Amino acid sequence: MSPGSRSWWWFWSCLLSLSVPSRTLELQELFKFGEEAGDQQLQPGSDSTAELPLNGSVFFFSQTFDKVYINTNGFVAFADPPAEDEYLGKMPSSFNMIAALLGDLDSSDGKGRVYFREDSSPDVLSRSAEHIKRAFPRDDGVEPTSALVVTWENMVAQGTLGRGDELDAKRNTFQLVVASMESSSCAILLYPIGGLQFLYTSVGGEAKLLEAGFNEGLVKSWWSWSASQGTYFRTTTDEETSIRDLTEKTTSGQAGVWVYEIGSSPFFASITPGMASSLRDEENTTEPPVTLLPRQPDEQTTMDFSTHEPQAGPEEEEEFPTPAPAENQPSYPDAVTATPGEAKPGVEEPYYEEEYPESEIVTPTYTNPERAQPRYPDPSEPRYPVSEPLQPRYTIPETPEPRYPPVQPRYPDPNPVEPRYANPEPVQPVPPYSRPHQPQIVVVDEDENLDVNVFRYNLETCAHNSHKCSAFADCRDYSDGYCCHCRPGFYGNGKDCVADGKPQRMSGEVNGRVFVGNSTFPVELGNNDLHSYVVANDGRAYVAISNIPKSLGPSLQPLSSLGGVIGWAFALEQPGYQNGFSVTGGVFSRQAEVIFQPGNERLSIKQRFEGIDEHDHLVVRTDLEGRLPAILQGSSVQINPYKEIYQYDRNFITSSSNRDYTVTSPDGAVQTRSYQWRQTVTFQSCPHDEATRPAPSTQQLSVDQIFVMFDADNNLVRYAMSNRIGSVHSSVPEQNPCFTGRHGCDINAACRPGEGLQFTCECTNGFTGDGRYCHDIDECRETPQVCGSNAVCSNQPGTFRCECARGFVFASDGKTCIEEDRPVDHCQRGTHDCDGPERALCSYTGGSAYACSCLPGFVGNGRGCRDVDECQQERCHRDAVCSNTQGSYTCQCQPGFHGDGFRCSPTSSEREKTQCERHRESAQTATATSGSGFFSFLRPRPAVGQYVPQCNEHGAYEPTQCHTSIGQCWCVDANGQEIPNTRTGPGSTPLCIDQAVTPPPVGPTPRPDVHPVAPGTHLLFAQSGKIEHVPLDGYNMKMEEAKPLLHIPDRVVIAVAYDCVEKMVYWTDITGPAISRAGISGGDISPVITTDLQSPEGIAIDHVARLLFWTDSMRDTVEVSKLDGSQRRVLFDTDLINPRPIVTNPAYGRLYWADWNRDGPKIEMSNMDGTDRIVLVKDDLGLPNGLTFDLDNQQLCWADAGTRKVECMDPHRRLRRKIVEGIQYPFSLVSFGRNLYYTDWRREAVVAVDRQSEKETEEFLPQKRSRLYGITTTPTQCPQAYNYCANNGGCSHLCLPRLGGFTCRCPDTASAGAPCEERNL
C-alpha cells in the first residue's frame, strides 16, 4: 500500500457516511441573502460577471486570492472568466473556479437573481463554523474570520424563457459560502429541498447535465515552464442521480449541505470532503461518487508497474530491481470515478513515485485478526515530483505561538495526515539516469567554538534527577551516574522521547546574512519563522520558511539540506539502524558548509536543536552566513535523489556528499549545477551505560521524492523529501511494508513488522483505535486528576499539558504547582484592608505594598474612617440650618430667608410670580367682567373655551399643555411656546420633554465634572441635571452601588451614548442646546456641537468609522459629524416630524431612527451615507420612543409608549416578535447580552427585561425620584465589527459607510484647508 494510502483510507472511510439519510435543507435555512442582508446584486443576464475585492484572503488549492468573480452560470472564479462558450461543456476550464452548479443559466427575466457579499458578522461566521464543525467533528477552535456568500435564486436554463412548454416555470436556487480561517478555507454548498427543478441546460445545441466541483485551472509544472491542466475535483458525475443527490445527501450531517476544505497554507495537497457526524441509518445507502479527472487527459494518469521498468544500470538495480509479476500489480484508468460503496476489498493501492519506482510492488498481508479492511483504488498521484502533504484544516501557523492556546489545533485526523491527491497527475517520462556520485567521505574537524547547547549527565543519582528524564522514560542508576532510557513504544535519548510512529512538528527561527550572486549588499534574515512536519511512520518531512524576500527566495531552492537534517532526524529506520533522533534525542548542534560550483560560493549553516517544548514541538534555531549563486525569479529547481553516508562516534557524527541540481529558467533554459556538502553533528550521550546499543559506525541516508519551490505570492520557501536510514552495503532491500513505508497504518500509528510481508498497525501512545484508524485519547477527561492539585489539564493530540492555576507556579521538580511568590496589587485584587470604598481610597505603591487614605469628608488612618461633622465647623450662614451627611453636608436657609444656605436674606411676604403664573393669572382674570352670579367675584374663572396654562410647583410651564374645551394637547418649551407638530386630538397625549431646568437642591452645588467609575460594564442613564451609573454584575443591576457620574445642574440631559474606543460618554441637552462629552475615567466636560441646534433628542455613535449621528426634533433633521463635531453634514431634512431615537449598525453601515409623529409613527432605515432610505416599520406603532440595536444578534428593538410594548425585529428578514407588553411609559432603551434595559417615566425607574424568557426581571428606583431619560451601557470591550471607514477609507473629509462600500462626502460648510472630493466606493 502506498504512502498516500493511509490518508486515502481515512478519506474513503469518511465518505462511507455521505449518503446516510438526514434532515433535508429547507429554503429558509439558507444563509441570509438579498438586499437586507447587505448583498450586492449581479447584473441580470445570461453571462454576467462581477468582480468583488475581498478584505480577507481565500485559500484555493495552494494559492491565495484577494478578489473573486461571480458569474451567472453558477460559479465563482478567481480570475476574470472568458466568454461562456469557452468553458461550458468543455470542463475542466483553463481558469480556477468553484462550480456550485455549473450550466448555461439565465436571470434576465427579473425573477432570477444572483446575490453576493463578503460578510464578517458574528451570525454568519458562527453559522459557518457550525457547518464546518459538523463536517469535521474532530476540529477544535474553528474560527472563520470572513465569509463569501453567493446565492443563485430562481435561475432558469438559458433559452427556456417564454417557450410556453412550462419549462420556464422550472427554477434552481442554491448557495455557496466560502469561509476563510487564518490559514485555510472551506466551501459550504447548500442545495435546499425543491431548489433544483431542472438538471440539464442546452450547450451548443445539446443537452448537458449540470455539474459541480472545484477546478484548479492551468498550473505551471515545476519541472518545466509550460502550463498543464490542474486538478478538477468533481463532486457530481455524468449521471442524473448525482445532481438529484445534492439535495438528498451530505458531507456534513444535514442533507443538502456539502462542506469541503478547498485550500490551505503553507501546505496543501487536495480538496477534502467533510465527514457526516450525526447521521441516522447507515443501511442500504450508496455513495455519491467523486470523479477525479487527470491533469492532462492525453497522458497516462497512473503508472502501471506491470509494464514500466526503469532503465537501471548495475548499481541502480540494487535500489530498483525488477518489478513483481504482473499478477501482483494493479492497473488504473486514466480518470478514476471513485465510488467507495462499490470498491472491492482486497484491491491493492498503487504506490506512486515520480522519478523512480521502488524495487517491486508487493501485496502485504495485514494481520489484524479482528476485521479485514477493504482496499480501495488510490486515484492519487502527486502534482510535483514530490507533493506537499494534506495539512490540517488549520495548518502550521506562520508564528511559533499556537493559534488556539493552550489547546493545540485539532484536525479531521488527530494530526495532519499524509498527502491525499484528489487528482492524479501523469507521470513524466523517466529522464536518462546517470551513475550516481559515490559520496566522498570527508572527516570534518569539530569546531571548538561551536556552541553545543546540550544537557550534561553528572554523577548524581536518579533519586534527585529523575525529573530530568522524559515523562516517557525511566531513570536508571549506574556506578558512576544515572541515565535516562525511553520506555518501550518510544524512541529518543531518554531526555526527549517520542512515541513510535507519532508525527512530529518542529518550529523555530532563521537568522543571518546571505549575499546573492555578485551582490555587495547582503539580505538580512531576522527571526524568520521555520515550521516543519514529519510523518514519522514513512519518513516524509516537510519544511517551510516564511517571510523570505523575493531577492533571496529563488536562490534558496537548492538548499534542501536546510530541512535535510530534519529528514535525517526522523528518517524511516531499516532493521538494525537508527535515525538521528534515536541517537541524539532532541538536543544537538549541527554545523554545515556548502560549496557551490562552478562559482565557488560558500554558505555556512549553524543549527541548534533545543529539545521538545511545552507544545510538543521540537525547537530549532538556524543561522545562515555566506553567499549563494543567483537564481532568477520564476525559475524552478529540481534535485535528483541522493544518498549520504553518516559516520558515527559516541558524541560526534559527520557526513558529506556531492549533489547535482537542475535549474530551469523562465525562458526554458536548463542548467545543471552542483555543490559539495559536509557537516558535523555534536551531541551529548549518556556515558554511564556501556551496555547501550550504539548506532552502527556507518549508516546511509537515502533521500528521494525531493520537492523544492519558492512561493513568491506568500514569500515562502518550501522543501519536502522522503528519508530512509539503513546500510551502506549492497543488500536486498527490505520488502516489509514497515520498512518501505507502504503500509496502511494511520498517521498516528506505528507499523510493527511481522514475518515476511506481514505487519500490524498499532496506535501510538496517546491514541486509540485499530491502527488503521486512530483517534486521540482525552487524558484530561478520562483521568481528571492527572495534573494534580492547583493545576489545569489541557488535552492535546496524543498527549496532554499541565498548567498551574492562576497564582501558582511549577516547583523545582517541574510537576508540582506551588503558590506563586510575586508582587500583588491588593488594591486591584480587592484583598486590601482599607475601609470601604465610599469612605477610603486604596493606593498601590509598588511591590505588594499599598496605602490607605480617607476620602474628603472623612478622617482616620484609612483603615478606619469616620465622617467629619462639617456642621460643627459653622460653614453655613447664621440664618441657615446645617444638615450633616456622610462625607458632606447641606445648608438651607431658615423660613423667612432665601438663598443658597451660605448666604441668606430676608424674604418678602410674597415671592415674584413666574412667567407661567402671570400667564395663568391673566387668563383667569380675563373672565372677571364676563362672570355672573353671586359668587363670581370670589375667584376668577375662565370663560368657556378659554385656554389656561398649567404651571408646576416651581411656577414653570408644564411640558404638556391641554385645552380641555377642544380636547387637544401639545408640547411647549420653557417659555410656554408651542412646539410645532406636537398637537394631538381628543383621547391622546403627546410625549413632551420638560424643557425647564429643575431648581438645584439647597446647599453646595456639585462640580460639573465626572466622578470616575470602577472597571466593568455599567448602565448610564440621564435624570434631569445629571447622569447616573449603575454597575452590572452579569445582567443584574448592583443597585446599592449606583452613583452619579456627572452633575450638570443647569441642563436637561436627554440622550446618552458611549464610545467604547476612547471610553467617553456623549449626551445631548435641550437647554443649551448642545452636544457634549466627557471621559468616564474622570475629567472635564468638552463641548462637541453648540450651534444650529434646537432640540437634539437622539444621539448614536459608530465606533468603527468614528462618527456621531443625532436627531433634532425641532429642526426635523438627521445629521452626522466626526466625533469631535467637525465635518458636520445634514443627512435628512424632509419627511420628518418628531425624530427622536437613533442607533447605528457599524458592521453593515446602517442607520436606524424612529419618528413618533402621532399621525404616522414609523421606524426608518438608511445607509450611513444617506442612501437607500426606507420605512422599516409603520404598522402597529404608537409612540416609538426607545430604540436599540444588538450588534451581536443583528436585532433592532424598540420600546413604544403608545402600544406599551417592547418588540424586536431582524431588519434583514423583517422578522418581528413581541418581547413584553403592558409596560407603562418607556422613554429610552438599550440592549446588553440577553437583556434589554429601559427607562420609564411613570415608574421613574430603570427596568430590566430578559429577552429569552420575555419577562421583566428587576427594577431600579433612583434615590431621587423624577423622570429618567436616555440610557446606554459601557461595555468593557467594543463589539467586533468592521466597515470600510475604519481608517477614514482614504477620504479627504467625511467617510460614510454604506452596505457593501462607503461614500466620501463633504461637510455642509466648507473649511479652509485641503480641497474636498466626493466619490462613491
From TrEMBL:
<feature type="repeat" description="LDL-receptor class B">
    <location>
        <begin position="1063"/>
        <end position="1105"/>
    </location>
</feature>
<dbReference type="Pfam" id="PF00058">
    <property type="entry name" value="Ldl_recept_b"/>
</dbReference>
<dbReference type="Pfam" id="PF07474">
    <property type="entry name" value="G2F"/>
</dbReference>
<dbReference type="GO" id="GO:0005886">
    <property type="term" value="C:plasma membrane"/>
</dbReference>
<dbReference type="GO" id="GO:0007160">
    <property type="term" value="P:cell-matrix adhesion"/>
</dbReference>
<dbReference type="Pfam" id="PF07645">
    <property type="entry name" value="EGF_CA"/>
</dbReference>
<dbReference type="InterPro" id="IPR006605">
    <property type="entry name" value="G2_nidogen/fibulin_G2F"/>
</dbReference>
<feature type="compositionally biased region" description="Pro residues">
    <location>
        <begin position="402"/>
        <end position="417"/>
    </location>
</feature>
<dbReference type="InterPro" id="IPR000742">
    <property type="entry name" value="EGF"/>
</dbReference>
<feature type="domain" description="EGF-like">
    <location>
        <begin position="823"/>
        <end position="866"/>
    </location>
</feature>
<dbReference type="InterPro" id="IPR009030">
    <property type="entry name" value="Growth_fac_rcpt_cys_sf"/>
</dbReference>
<feature type="signal peptide">
    <location>
        <begin position="1"/>
        <end position="24"/>
    </location>
</feature>
<dbReference type="InterPro" id="IPR009017">
    <property type="entry name" value="GFP"/>
</dbReference>
<dbReference type="InterPro" id="IPR000033">
    <property type="entry name" value="LDLR_classB_rpt"/>
</dbReference>
<feature type="domain" description="Nidogen G2 beta-barrel">
    <location>
        <begin position="502"/>
        <end position="735"/>
    </location>
</feature>
<feature type="region of interest" description="Disordered">
    <location>
        <begin position="278"/>
        <end position="420"/>
    </location>
</feature>
<dbReference type="InterPro" id="IPR050778">
    <property type="entry name" value="Cueball_EGF_LRP_Nidogen"/>
</dbReference>
<dbReference type="InterPro" id="IPR049883">
    <property type="entry name" value="NOTCH1_EGF-like"/>
</dbReference>
<protein>
    <submittedName>
        <fullName>Nidogen 1b</fullName>
    </submittedName>
</protein>
<feature type="domain" description="EGF-like">
    <location>
        <begin position="776"/>
        <end position="818"/>
    </location>
</feature>
<dbReference type="Pfam" id="PF12947">
    <property type="entry name" value="EGF_3"/>
</dbReference>
<keyword id="KW-0677">Repeat</keyword>
<feature type="repeat" description="LDL-receptor class B">
    <location>
        <begin position="1106"/>
        <end position="1148"/>
    </location>
</feature>
<feature type="domain" description="EGF-like">
    <location>
        <begin position="458"/>
        <end position="498"/>
    </location>
</feature>
<dbReference type="GO" id="GO:0042813">
    <property type="term" value="F:Wnt receptor activity"/>
</dbReference>
<feature type="domain" description="Thyroglobulin type-1">
    <location>
        <begin position="913"/>
        <end position="992"/>
    </location>
</feature>
<dbReference type="GO" id="GO:0005604">
    <property type="term" value="C:basement membrane"/>
</dbReference>
<dbReference type="InterPro" id="IPR011042">
    <property type="entry name" value="6-blade_b-propeller_TolB-like"/>
</dbReference>
<dbReference type="InterPro" id="IPR018097">
    <property type="entry name" value="EGF_Ca-bd_CS"/>
</dbReference>
<feature type="domain" description="EGF-like">
    <location>
        <begin position="734"/>
        <end position="775"/>
    </location>
</feature>
<keyword id="KW-1015">Disulfide bond</keyword>
<keyword id="KW-0084">Basement membrane</keyword>
<keyword id="KW-0106">Calcium</keyword>
<feature type="disulfide bond">
    <location>
        <begin position="962"/>
        <end position="969"/>
    </location>
</feature>
<dbReference type="InterPro" id="IPR024731">
    <property type="entry name" value="NELL2-like_EGF"/>
</dbReference>
<keyword id="KW-0272">Extracellular matrix</keyword>
<keyword id="KW-0130">Cell adhesion</keyword>
<dbReference type="Pfam" id="PF00086">
    <property type="entry name" value="Thyroglobulin_1"/>
</dbReference>
<dbReference type="InterPro" id="IPR026823">
    <property type="entry name" value="cEGF"/>
</dbReference>
<keyword id="KW-0732">Signal</keyword>
<feature type="domain" description="EGF-like">
    <location>
        <begin position="867"/>
        <end position="905"/>
    </location>
</feature>
<feature type="repeat" description="LDL-receptor class B">
    <location>
        <begin position="1149"/>
        <end position="1193"/>
    </location>
</feature>
